[in-house]
Every structure is written in C-alpha cells, then in structure tokens.
Design a protein that fits this description.
The structure is a homodimer. Chain A is about 40% helix and about 20% strand. By secondary structure, chain A is of the alpha/beta class. The first copy, chain A, folds into two domains: about 100 residues, Ribosomal protein L30/S12 (60s Ribosomal Protein L30, Chain: A, 2-Layer Sandwich); about 160 residues, SPOUT methyltransferase, trefoil knot domain (Alpha/beta knot, 3-Layer(aba) Sandwich), CATH 3.40.1280. A seven-stranded parallel β-sheet of chain A has the order 8-7-6-11-9-12-10, sandwiched between helices. The first copy, chain A, has a five-stranded mixed β-sheet with strand order 1-4-3-5-2, sandwiched between helices. The radius of gyration of chain A is 21 Å and the shape is elongated.
C-alpha cells in the first residue's frame, strides 16, 4: 500500500467529520455516512457504494482481507487515511474496533425512478421509529431477495449507526427511497400499484391471502401500526393471527413473517407450474 | 387506597434493592426482578406473577387503571409503597416514567416438570446473547401460542430490563426453563422428544418440512448459530432459504419465521381435517 502519513490528532477535519456523522442532522446535510467494521466496509465496496474516505488503524487491523480491500479502494481512487489507534478508538462505535471504517456517500433513489416488475418485492414503511428495527427489516429484505424499501415521512434513518449494524450490510443491497406520504400516494395511484397493508383488525389472514403479482407491502409504526390515512391508501389489508395475550408483534418480526410468507407463496407457485 | 407514608430517600432499602435489580448478579442471587411501566405491571398481575412490592409515584401515575391495579394488589397482600417523583425518577428505566413499578419474584420451571403435549410448541435457545432478541422471541412465542422457552447454559436473562421491555408482557405468559446443555441432552434423550434445529447448511427447507406432532424448536446463538454438539443432538435440521447477500437472519426474526411456519402448518392440518 502507498505510504501515507499517520493522523494522530482527533482535531483532523476528516476525523471530526466522521464523528459528526453519528448525528442525523449532519448526515442529512452532508449526504454522507460513517460505516465501521470489516464486514460492512467490504459489503459497501462490493456493492459499489461510493466510498469517499477509508480510515485505517494499521495496528488494530489484523485482517488480511481488510488490507486487501484498502489496497483495492486506493486503486479505485478512494482517499485512504491511516490513523493512530487512539484516534480510531475515539471514533469507534464498538468497544473492540477492527481498525477499519469509511465515510461513504448515501445512496437514494427517487420514487419516480422506481418501476416495479412482477415478482419484485418492495416494502414501504410509514413511520418506522427504531433504527434497529429498520436495519433488521433491510436484512430480512435481503434475505427474501426484495428490491428495496420506501421510507415515508417520519421514518428513522437507515444510515443511523444502529440501523446499519442491524442491517449487516443489507443496507447496500437494497434500493432506498425517501418520500413524503403525499408524493407516495400520488405516485401509487398514478402507477396503479396495489398496496397491501397489515393490521391486527384486517379480515384477510396473511397466510391464505392471494398476494397480487406486483405490489408493495406497507407496514406501519411500532406503536400505532398504519395510520388512518395509510389504511385508506391500501388496496388490501392482511392480518397476522395472534394466539396469545399480545396484540401485536415486533415490527421487524411482523415484516419478516409476511415477507417470508410472500416468498413461500412465490416459491409454491413456481413449484406448481413446474409440477 | 390505604394511605402510606411517602418514601423520599433513595437510600431506602427497597429503593436500593430495586436499583440493584438492574444487575444480573443481584437478580440471580435474589430470584427477584424489577419491572416498570403500567402495561408490564398489569400483565404480571393478570398472569399471577408474585408481586412482592409495588412502587407508586402518585403524581406521575395519571392512569386510573394503574390506581385500580394498585388497589387490587394491595388487597391481595402485596406491599404497596408510595415514593416521591424524585425517588421514582432515580429508579426509572425510561425518561418519561409512568409512576408504577414492581419488584416481582422470578418464575422458573424445572426441566423435569415439562411434559410436552402434542401440538404444543416449545423453543430451546442454546446461547441467545442479546436481551432484546430474547424478549422479542418471547413476544413471538406468545403470538403463536407457544408454551415456553428453555434457556441453555450461556443464554441471556429474560428478566433483564431490555428483554422484559421487548417481551411486552409475554415474559409472564411463557413458561421459562433454565438448564445446562448436559441436563437438557439427557432429558431430551430419555423423554424421546424430537429436536428440530435450524442451520443455513441444512438440507430440509423449513417450508416443505413435515414437522413432528410434538417437538422442540432449537435455535442457536446470534453469531455462531447452533454449536456442533447442539447440531448433533438435533433429530432434524431445517434451513430458512436466503436469497440475497446475507448469510443469516436476525435471531428473533429467524425464530419468528419458523414459528409462524409451524403455526401455519398446524392451521392447515386442522383445515384439511375439517375440509
């Protein structure tokens, strides 16, 4: 690797920027995010995320893979900065940091760039509040081969460190769209895209329901579920049956239960055609 | 409600105990737990949890339901202590506490008290590490009407405040068993109880798999899945297919996806019998 001078001051502008990116405001204004750890940096690099600056703490970075990723990114034109262990630890989100982190550009698609194809799965989230839930939903979306997630109005930020950690790199495999409810509503109506919501009060059982070939799964907020206006926008609403005392599931769990059911329906349909 | 004197000192022994119960060591030694918030106290009371001491901050407790629960518990012989807002806030796990909390006895079953009936669902967790995951799993278990959870060796504590919050009261609807791996292994073998594990490397697809009428679902650790010795103990292992880049799902999500699949199989079987 090309030798670079070692950053030993936490007052270095890039280090200050990396630290500031923990705050949503800074992320929103800059369009950047701070990612940390070998796995997520590799995922970001593999999925073509725009890595602006790679931060390496050579003494902490024991992994050969990490070094080769750094080499590769350097060749691709990314800025690679070596920092002292102390500086890296001052930034680190984890207690036992792996010595590799990056400042990346956030990647967002516009709603009018989204063109659903039959068989594709998209999830719209009305107001997911918990970054861990959002990250877990992204991870599950990747698991079922979904295309992306549309985040409405008051949803939390997928580039929040907790969301990124929970997504286990799936952040970089899913298309991300931000939209106001109004824009989403207009777009959905104009494009005639069926919207399938979930609610404990729905009549359709999510298991016996016949999902359309093309649709968006619409999930509400952790506490309140889908709002009234969101329910009105839905073409169909399905219910996950609850057997016990609880009246709802965790949001990431509910999303996963429906996504895997849809996935199984799709697999069954292909099996039936083949059979 | 019977008037009681107001506790205004954080040095009061009961207040000190409540605070100490955040630590696992204290919970283990005392067999007690500290629960906070109207919903969980109500769930605990409704499911017959042994509430030793109810802590009320009258000015914070705006809910009529909370007052009537307090009244009821007082009549059942629980100690009811009124504390000042300041004392309550010094204990509170939340920023905006509801003014109601309790010290409860933990409730555990012994493994030799567990007698599985056909159609009952039990989950064994080898080494769940994250209390939020454990709480979420309990919530999902309640959702599908499962009977209980068997926690092996290195599992986290369901009475951890984060686990209890995530369980949304389901902690009190599920039977909880703690066991060493060896005891579990001996018991399972003697009782001839089929154990169905999950692994990304398994041949059986969890969706097409024919689940036995009576079995325990066995889930591994967040990072490592089921250990080798745990895999050896399994009679069958199923795989949740993964479509994207990720090689695994969040543990609470994976457990939920399989539990709801089992639930659907059971519902389908009943439907077929009826049909």
């Amino acid at each position: 690797m090309r030798p670079t001078s070692l950053i030993t001051s936490t007052a270095n502008p890039k280090i200050k920027l990396a630290r500031k990116l923990r705050e949503r405001k800074e992320r929103q204004e800059s369009g950047l995010a701070y990612i940390e750890g070998l796995r997520i940096v590799i995922e970001a690099a593999q999925h073509g995320a725009a890595i602006q600056t790679l931060l390496l703490a050579p003494h902490l970075l024991s992994s050969e893979k990490g070094r080769s990723i750094a080499e590769d990114l350097l060749n691709r034109g990314a800025e690679v900065l070596e920092v002292s262990d102390e500086v890296f630890k001052s930034l680190a989100l984890k207690d036992d940091p792996q010595g590799i982190a990056a400042i990346v550009s956030q990647s967002w698609q516009r709603l009018d760039e989204v063109h659903l194809q039959t068989g594709e799965v998209w999830v719209a989230l009305e107001a997911v509040a918990d970054p861990g839930n959002l990250g877990t939903i992204l991870r599950t979306c990747d698991g079922v081969g979904a295309k992306g997630v549309i985040l409405l109005d008051n949803s939390t930020d997928p580039y929040d460190p907790t969301a990124m950690r929970a997504s286990m790199g799936a952040l970089f495999t899913q298309k991300l769209v931000k939209s106001s409810f109004e824009t989403f509503s207009t777009w959905k109506t104009a494009q005639k895209i069926p919207l399938v919501g979930t609610s404990g009060a729905a009549k359709n059982d999510y298991h016996s329901f016949q999902y359309p070939g093309l649709f968006i799964l619409f999930m509400g907020n952790e506490r309140h579920g889908l709002s009234e206006k969101a329910m009105t926008l839905c073409d169909q609403v399905v219910r996950i049956p609850m057997h016990g005392q609880s009246d709802s599931l965790n949001l990431a769990v509910a999303t996963a239960v429906v996504l895997y059911e849809i996935y199984n329906h799709q697999r069954d349909a292909i099996g039936e055609k083949k059979g």
